[in-house]
Amino acid sequence: MQFDIITIFPDFFRGPLDHGIIRRAREAGLANIRVVDLREFTHDRHRTVDDRPFGGGEGMVLKPEPIFECLESLQVAPRETRLADTSTESVVLLSAQGQRFDQGVAEELASRERLVLICGRYEGVDERVNAFLADRELSIGDYVLSGGELAAAVVLDTVTRLLPGALGNEASARQESFSAGTVRQPVPVVEGQRPAPSSTCASGGLLDYPHYTRPAEFRGMAVPEVLVSGDHEQIRRWRRRSALEKTLHNRPDLLQEADLSREDQELLAQISGKRI
Ligand code: SAM
């Protein structure tokens, strides 16, 4: 997948691109990431990318011309084509006013062949970029960052780990929190034994269950006994119950949309009873 990140701070991405899964995805040729300096598309001595807002008010606004020129030079598909369902490219403007970025949006973006991320700064970006150039505005949460770079790094990381082959184990991404896909069946950790190979089952959009590793006891804190029992069915049930419990406690809103089985509903009733 091709990523193009447009920013006035290209050095910002040195860290995020050079570690972990993103670095490995780049090295494996799964992700080709180009960071473009917006100032390359200015034509004055001071390489000006911003100007005062029309109508007055505080702060500066990123000018439209360098951003339009930048996208033209990248030969991005026309906006009408990108807005079509079948498009293989997407141009995203990072903005606190955007639609909320979540795992579903990440999965949709990961199905594209190319993703262009435009990072705003100052008071924001001239609205014509949103109205006539980007095909969507995305926000990573209800708070205001100083710039779009952190948000772009979040989108980049989330989408990259969904690319086939990026995690090494395809089941890993599907079993995580928010995933509507499929998840691993329990792989018990039994002292002295290698874990059994994993298989998959539906996760249904809950938060992930808690994870533990060795040692089984640490400073008086023991791993739940069931996880070292070797009883796969009991482990599956414990994990499902824990995922439901955590979701109910931390993100009850997710339960409205979750794909709940009869067993889930029984477990939830038990948990709620316990909580009451
Ligand atoms: N005046 C803007 C507002 O109130 O919505 C905030 C501008 S912010 C200081 C500068 C840039 O940071 C934005 O143009 C955007 O690119 C980025 N940004 C800030 N918060 C963000 C968020 N929650 N998600 C994505 N990008 C964000």
CATH topology of the largest domain: Alpha/beta knot
Number of helices: 11
Number of domains: 2
Q: What portion of residues belong to β-strands? A: 15-25%
Q: Identify every distinct bound molecule in the structure, by name, code or SMILES.
A: S-adenosylmethionine
Model description:
The model is unreliable at 182-202 (pLDDT under 50). This protein has two domains: 2-175, Alpha/beta knot; 204-275, Orthogonal Bundle (Trp Operon Repressor, Chain A), CATH 1.10.1270. Helix 5 (103-110) packs across helix 7 and helix 9 (232-250) packs across helix 11 (262-275). The N and C termini lie far apart (49 Å). It is elongated, with a radius of gyration of 23 Å. Strand 10 (217-218) and strand 11 (221-222) form a beta hairpin. The protein is built from eleven helices and eleven strands. The protein is an alpha/beta fold. 35% of the residues lie in helices and 17% in strands. It has helices spanning 14-17, 20-27, 64-73, 79-83, 103-110, 127-132, 148-160, 170-174, 232-250, 253-257, 262-275; strands spanning 2-7, 32-37, 50-51, 61-62, 89-100, 114-118, 136-139, 182-184, 200-202, 217-218, 221-222. A five-stranded parallel sheet has the order 2-1-6-5-7. It binds S-adenosylmethionine. S-adenosylmethionine is lined by residues 94-97, 119-121, 123-125, 139-141, 143-148, 151.
Which tags fit this structure?
276 residues, alpha/beta, Alpha/beta knot, Trp Operon Repressor, Chain A, 2 domains, 5-stranded parallel sheet, two-stranded antiparallel sheet, 35% helix, elongated, binds S-adenosylmethionine
